[in-house]
Here is the input.
Amino acid sequence: MMETITLHHGRTEVTPEEVGFDSASLERLNDHYRSLIESKIIQGASYVLSRHGKVFAHAAMGQLTHKEESLDLLPDSIRKTYSITKIMTASAIMQLIERGFIYLHQPVSSILKQFDTPMHRDITIFHLLTHTSGLRADPGYYFEPNPLPWFEWAYHERKKMDPTTDWIQIILAGPVMAAPGREWHYSTAGYAVLGEIITRIAETPYHQYVQDEILLPLGMEHSFFIVPPAWREDVCITSSREENGLLVTELDANSPPRAGNGMYSTLSDLLRFGQMLLGGGTLDGEVILSRRGVELLTQNHLTNVRMQGWGNDEDNFRFGLGFSLEDFDLCTPGTFNHEGFGHCGLYVDPVEQMVFAFLVPSTRGYTTESVLVPKAIVWSGLL
Here is the structure.
């Protein structure tokens, strides 16, 4: 006999219809997520939706953990957001640009001496933000059966780095994939480098800068790079590795900054970040970015750049400064987003003034059923 899947509701401010959304689409969304849980494709699902600054849906179902005996996933359970962290990093870089400390097309070698080689000297901050630096892509980007061992630079997921080891040198070992600006290769390594740039320029550790300049001012009170012990039981996990990651009590200064995949957060916190972007960089009187800064982050910056990853082959790939751009499905053209390891996502539609944040924890990683299909259901609900 199949166990009942309980739908938990979070706080909302208006009904869907009050902000021009068809509540029948929410029923379809819940039914879809429920079927994925019953089929063991995902462990659980939660989401929050707002339009015109008002939350009209906030719900969760499924399990909090991968264990047989597990509490339920709740609307504001904490979850590692993986690559959603990258848009925090991009926003921090934009802050430093706006404050006059760095400039967008500045050579990385002017800040990090390891890049001062014939092979890497032309790489700029822009190239790192747009994944066009030529640095090698993440394992699995080419569906390769044996991911390259060079990714061991990401020691922060497992153990402390030997203080004599230069992780930047490890990233730069071997050939580049293409000349800067020519091809799009999704590189978490490049974002670790951006985190190091933030650390050097701000003269404070990357994670502390993001906490002080973005998370705390926005009231993102349940977003962390180290989860406090008191909150660990509220964290959604899908594996023993993720569970072990919660035991970290301090970040090793010798390891790469967690600028590409290290932030934990909740749906409500991600929603606040999305609302700040919709507000042109401001939320509740707190100015995080300028209006032009947000526009620069979320507009296309690539022309005739080839992308051949994750089974795709595009000659004119579009990408912002850290933000993905939607132009191929029901999402309104101009919608910008970032996802995290197939487990979560934040979508912002400036035309419809809608924010959609979701968690779909799974041991399978990315599945189209849990990421692409829900987007179509959500955007079809606009009246």
